[in-house]
Amino acid sequence: ATVNKLFKMAETESLSSRSTQDQQEKDVANMSNEQLHKEVEELVRANAILDNERSMFEKFLKRVDPKDLAFTSTASAAPSMSMMDTRVSRKKSKTRSSSTERLLKLNAEQKCDIAQRELEELREEIEKLEEESEKILDNFKAVMEEADLRLAEMRKASYEFERDIVKGAVNPRTNKVIAERVQRYFDDKLRAKDALIEKLRLKNSSLKGQVKKLHQQLKQKEEMGEVLHEVDFNQLKIENSQYLEKIEEKNQDLLRLKLMAGNTLQVLNSYKKKLHTLTQESNRLKTEITSRDELLIRIESETIVVEEERAKAEVVNKRLRAQLADYKVPGVMEYVKEKADLYELNRLVKSWERKVEIADMALKTHHKTWDQLKRASEQQNPWRRAALEAS
Fold this sequence. Notes:
By secondary structure, the chain is mainly alpha-helical. It has helices at residues 2-30, 33-63, 73-76, 78-88, 98-104, 108-167, 179-224, 230-326, 332-380, 382-390. Helix content is 88%, strand content 0%.
């Protein structure tokens, strides 16, 4: 009944709008090309928005039963009216009456509610798809791992078969494979497979027991009311976020402390460098002070010696001054005579020195001649030399 009523209202509205279409056609005829282009762009954008709304409302109606909707009677028929509205809007103008719009369109709150429901539905679908894709991906990973294991086992078996049978079980005389070794090889492989099957069976049974035990524990928790509900998970999420915030704060504090420690270490290194420099300077000053002290001691000892020498020199000086005071200058003739005697003595000394040199040269010549005569006489009379040596 509501739909028929809305159809009738649309027909009455279309009839009432016929009178305004003529006026609008006249307005369109009076518009310029730019204005017509803008009007067309606006209509295209409005049609795109209405198309998106229509597709969203169709999905909403396919998913939700209209009897279960919480809208009013007008809102329940709105999705079908939106399709009608898109047909009718092609024929009517933009200056539609507000009363008719309220009857044929959903309000903003209803549209937001539908969009929110569709968004939640899309999120759920995306989560389901992600879960399914993760399951499929895990399955493929498991298949690939199994394939890799099988490939590794096949390669290992092929290598062992080639090593033990193809190359190791050949008779060197006949160049044929020994059947007993082949049979023993396959028997060993079958026994190993049987042992592996038994091991996997025991492991499977233990896992089944663990699953059964976990199901029993879960059932007991459900009976005791210890199963976590959505509220508990939300509370855990809130606590987790709070702990994450605290961890972030602690990380920031740790980073700040690390920066402070780095700055402190830099300052400490600078002070260590200064201390090292000052220590070297102190050692240098100590060494210099020690050397200066030694120099001072040496200077003091030298000063004492110099003072003693000065005292001695002063005594000598006094004696010389006394002699100088008592000295009398000789006469001129006496001085000339003394100088002539000195000159004569120097001449005699030089003459005697020359004579001594000549005598030394003559002595050397005589020694040389003597040595020659001695060697000649020894060569002529060797028995005398032996007698001399024996004596």
